[in-house]
């Protein structure tokens, strides 16, 4: 379990993390989201004991990181895949790390196998692609067989096979009862991997909820997409307070405020045939954008925004 209590971190005049508190539960994959500069990396570095907070505390498996005798057995950390000795082979890099904790070569070979790096174990890490460095970083995080993990953008640079592999690995680690905390900007991937989400913006906590709750908060309602033989008559019949019916560019109808069954019932009563009836819920991306709209530090102007003279 990872616990963060009233954590604040300032860099000079910049407050990177502003009095945030949350708990990352074991047995789940928890996603950590926020716009650029929101304070995710700073929070993760503080949890890992790499930076001292200005105020507040964090603990991993019940203790502060600097109180653990063997940190690698408590927390697997991937913060920067480039933080490797480029002249060392992958195997030598892992062996050097393992030696600091009395971990044997057998475990080094196990994690090389687990991360698909066995064939390149004797290549210098400096020649690795970003994806291979990510795998090496994950291998290092796994070395101590820890109960908790923090991973900053672990799928950055991975090919589709690698992305699926990380997803499967993280789900398995959570399934074994471990605590898994990861950041990513890839919403579609987060939606498939995480059970729970912590969202921050400008250093403050915005949301600490299950992924279902976050999805439910993104738009007011689900939408029903309809394709029918007589869309105009159907639209007229569906019109009522609280219900919006709009025409789509391809001649269908998008209905909010009504369940799919009610739409098909109205169509049947009028003898209108339906070619398509689909309920679409908000994507995680929509939900996330709506949650963080006011917390985006580096915002691009909407494409259709007119410039003021
Ligand atoms: N060592 C540092 N010195 C000064 N300012 C820093 C330092 N590290 C982070 N910051 C600032 O703290 C804020 C939070 O940065 P942080 O890297 O934690 O955000 P993030 O959410 O991880 O962003 P991104 O998604 O872009 O990686 C930013 O304004 C950043 O410029």
3D architecture notes:
Helix 3 packs across helix 4, helix 4 packs across helix 5 and helix 8 crosses helix 11. The chain contains 11 helices and 13 strands. The protein is elongated and about 75 Å long. With 309 residues, it is an alpha/beta fold. The strands form 3 sheets. A 6-stranded mixed sheet has the order 5-6-7-3-8-9, sandwiched between helices. The protein has a 4-stranded antiparallel sheet with strand order 11-12-10-13, with helices on one face. The C terminus is likely disordered. The structure holds adenosine-5'-triphosphate. The site of adenosine-5'-triphosphate has 11 residues, from strand 2 and helix 1. Keywords: ATP-binding, Nucleotide-binding, Transport. One of its GO terms (molecular function) is ATP binding. This is ATP-binding cassette domain-containing protein.
Secondary-structure map:
Layout: E1 2-11, E2 14-24, E3 28-33, H1 40-47, E4 55-60, H2 71-74, E5 75-78, H3 90-99, H4 105-114, H5 130-142, E6 148-152, H6 160-175, E7 179-183, H7 187-193, E8 196-201, E9 204-210, H8 211-218, E10 223-228, H9 231-238, E11 244-247, E12 253-256, H10 260-269, E13 274-280, H11 284-292
Parallel strand pairs: 3-7, 3-8, 5-6, 6-7
Antiparallel strand pairs: 1-2, 1-4, 8-9, 10-12, 10-13, 11-12
This protein binds adenosine-5'-triphosphate (ATP).
Adenosine-5'-triphosphate (ATP) binds at residues 11, 14, 16, 34, 36-42.
InterPro entries: AAA+_ATPase, ABC_transporter-like_ATP-bd, ABC_transporter-like_CS, P-loop_NTPase
Protein name: ATP-binding cassette domain-containing protein
GO molecular function, one term: ATP binding
